[in-house]
């Protein structure tokens, strides 16, 4: 407004709201400075980067708790299980030991000592 009593409209900042915000991935722009406040799962000056592998959440402050080589989703930490594993942390085998296949109906020809 004329006496700076009103914040800038969404997407702009600065004197007379003349600057355009360039935050990415849903980041919010401070109406005065233009500094981005990133949403969960993103970091960087413009919220352009996903959290580094092994971290997630706001400011990538949380550590993932996934097992058996699974990666976690950078936003909420949900584990993305590799084939053959299930469970919240990918801690369980999909098939019982010694079996494999879509319905776990095939017997593994491998020796137990040589498998995961």
From TrEMBL:
Name this polypeptide is given: PREDICTED: multiple epidermal growth factor-like domains protein 10, partial
GO cellular-component term (any): membrane
Source organism: Scomber scombrus
Disulphide bridges: 38-47, 81-90
Family matches, as SMART domains: EGF
Signal peptide boundaries: none
Keywords for this protein: Disulfide bond, EGF-like domain, Repeat, Signal
Stored PROSITE patterns: EGF_1, EGF_2, EGF_3
Keyword field contains Repeat: yes
Domain of life: Eukaryota
Residue intervals of the EGF-like domain: 18-48, 56-91
């Amino acid at each position: 407004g004329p006496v700076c009593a009103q914040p800038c409209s969404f997407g702009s900042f600065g004197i007379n709201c003349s600057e355009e915000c360039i935050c990415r991935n849903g980041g919010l722009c401070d109406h005065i400075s233009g500094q981005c406040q990133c949403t969960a799962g993103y970091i960087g000056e413009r919220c352009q980067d996903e959290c580094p592998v092994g971290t997630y959440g706001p400011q990538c402050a949380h550590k993932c708790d996934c097992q058996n080589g699974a990666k976690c989703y950078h936003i909420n930490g949900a584990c993305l299980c590799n084939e053959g594993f299930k469970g919240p942390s990918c801690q369980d085998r999909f098939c019982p030991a010694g079996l494999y296949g879509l319905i776990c109906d095939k017997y593994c020809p491998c020796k137990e000592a040589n498998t995961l």
